[in-house]
User: What shape does this take?
Amino acid sequence: MDAVEAYITELAQPQRGIMHHLHELITSYPEVTAKIRYKIPFYYCRSWICYLNPVKDRGVELAFTRGNELSNEQGLLNARGRKQVSGVIFHQLKEIPDVVVHEVLLEALLLDEEVPYRVGRKG
Assistant: This one.
């Protein structure tokens, strides 16, 4: 069991189930690696793609580190006052729209591949 899986196992339900499902979706892309950073799971290719953050109301936020550069055509992401990061909070496993999450992940992976991340980048 790696560090991310151990982290997820320690969570209480429903966060454990939500986080496990999202972890499986994200890591279904072979180029993605997962690491614990800042005490939560981050997912990488060339640079940070997204992270999973358990929130106090027992939900899990799937946040994209370059969310301001994504199209958000699906209307899934919310910046919640942040300049760069955008995400979505899930409170129940059944709320997760797998197809839409895959679409956003694919766009984020393509952005990571084609446009190198630069600190201070404007979206």
